[in-house]
Amino acid sequence: MRTRTLLETAAVATVAGLVGMAAAPVAGASTAATLPLTAAKLQAMVVDQVHRHVFLSDGANVYVTDFSGTLVATVAEPGAGAMALSPDSGALYVALNGNLNPADTVPYTQIVTVDTTSFAPTGTRNTGMTEPGRTSMVQIGGKLWFNAGLLTSAGWKTGIGVYDPSTPSMGNVFTPTTVPADLLSVNPAAPGVLVVAGAPATAGAPNIGVYDVSNGTLPYQPTAAASVPDVGAPRGRSAALAVSADGRQIVLADGDVLRTSDLTSVGRYLSPVVNGALTSVWLAPDGTVAFAGPAPTAAGQVPGVDLFVFAPGASHPLNTYAFPSSVTAGALSGEGVAWDPDGSRIFTLVLDASGDAGTLGALDSPEVAATAIALSAPAQDTLGQALTAHGTLGSGAALAPGTTVTVTRSDAASPAGTTVATVPVAADGSFSFTDTPPVAGAATYTAQYAGDAAHKPTTTSATVQVNRLSTTLTVTTDAAAYAYGGWATVTAHLGTTPTGRTVSLYAQPYGGARTLVATGTVDARGDLTARYRAWRTTTLTAVFAGDDRYAPATATRQIADRVSLAEALKGYYRSVRYGSIWVRDYHHSAKPVLTASVTPKKPGQCMVFDLERYDGGAWHNLGATPCIKINAAGTASITVVRTMPTGLYRIDAAYLAARTDPSNASTPGAWQFFAITN
Question: Of 246, 445, 481, 586, which one has the fewest beta carbons inside 10 Å?
């Protein structure tokens, strides 16, 4: 059977919904102890704080580990069950149960003494009392008290036996009890109070009783006895109940609290899990109480087990330790949990997922309340602007007045972190701080609570993306459209920036690649000017790369580029110049022809022609042609076929850019003048 046993230190426990996982091996444990037991076989676990050892019995052996998780010794003791330490921790007493050892032919309870230094058995005591199905044994004032049976002159009796190891020659004392003694429980801090519980043969008979054993003997009658349904069936369940440190209260496994004087209920610890029930209880000598109970689970999931630690009488747990869902409730019941007598840790034995391996763990500082910080900061901020973050420090124990949280900031200017503020925490746990990040980029704020004697430290962080400042960037030209091959004057203007003043200008003609036109430092006005020759419609882009304080910026402008349009009249018989205008003369029988050519060639695109006549001192439109397709040579022609009276006329061509070819803009032609003569 493969078994792993390592000591571990638990993570911070639950506060405000945060759960620490328990029972993980601690880093640095040098030896993995091999314990061939499971929680189902575990009979008892005892912690020796003096020698820093943990003793575990499984019905066949007593295993000894140190506090670091190393297996120190294995003591073979068939039937090893209940255990108790002597007052000076010099001896371990082990009760042998015959039902755990089929080879045992002695029908009486036997108690073996084991030296806690050499781990060697030093003697075996046959009490002469009939052993019960499972022995429950406690140490009170140096004496061992255990449940037993005895055939007396009055017949068969069940009760409690007492053995004094300091006087082994003396006889053992047996006292019948009116309450079935399936379970014996004491608190070392209140040795005069012995609580006995069991399942009575008669319904309604007392199942719990309190005895005053301050004089070292067991009276025939308890000081209080009652039938308490919440006691349940305590046989074999050492965690069915526990006695408080002052001896005045009994805490039951379901959280109910009884007064020892009359066994009436005086309070209850409640599971922090909705609809959850507490199932086992263990008390530290100072009254701090630990409960086991089911962990919250989603529908259809196997429930895990949580361990809740309460301060005496508290309504909320100081700590919650979550165990994996593979750990069953049985793995943490009764004998699977034990307090270190000084209250500094809780030892646990749990199963792994296979169910055939026990893992010994330690939960450190269970009496120190877990804490957690919830920190809320803006997701983004702008450089130079102050931001305010809010947080809440939560804990299972009240925070002391004057509690503070230290806030640090880590960013490009301070990678190792710098202190922003030490802020006070209000009575409700809230706090806030204001800061102005000095550089752009990710700024991580860490809120740290140092803790104190009653509270564990905690830390959390939140990251703010600090954005650089924005600046203005524009790009302008000296015109919106240019002749084919015309030169554009391009000006980029950059707004205020303290350092980076470099701007780049790019041009991307329609259908072409982007190329750099110019790059340089802007002048005193913030301008960078360049010349660009346009052959096609072009997108001009100004780019500022940014600097430490200002974010990158981009500005664009599109300029149109027209085609080169040439026009020529044909069929005239002479040309007459009037000032700067040439007029072509046609006989009245001639047919004027106007041919228009475009560069670049635009085959399949449209050319339109307009015709006007001068009359009465004004030009009058005679009509326009529909789209005339440009041929492969880049030309289109129109012939005036109508008979026109003598007079002065003008005609022109215009290129119409198509949606399918926006590389050049629509381009008007120039008027061509002609006259019809006799």
Answer: 246
